[in-house]
Amino acid sequence: MVYTFACPAPCSRVIMVDAHNDDDAITKIIGAGAINCRNMKNSPCREKVPHLPPLPEKKLREIVHLCMNVEHCYGS
Q1: What are the angstrom distances between the C-alpha of 36 and each of 1, 42, 73?
Q2: Is the pLDDT confidence value at 2 over 90?
Q3: Cα separation of 18 and 16, whole Å?
Q4: Which end of the chain is more exposed for a tag (fewer CB within 10 A), N or C?
């Protein structure tokens, strides 16, 4: 299945991954850098909104799960 994640504002990054299930997708999306700008001091997002606090792993996983979409691909 293909999962798509769009980082929340102020970021506009979109990440797509191929995963077996939601947990696999969340791990891959985070590994690809989802919301990573929240945890970097000199990211473009932190320059736009400097008061963004870093996110702990559990909260990061929750946000990714809430914001991702899945496309079910069925074979012919």
Answers
A1: 23, 11, 28
A2: yes
A3: 7
A4: C
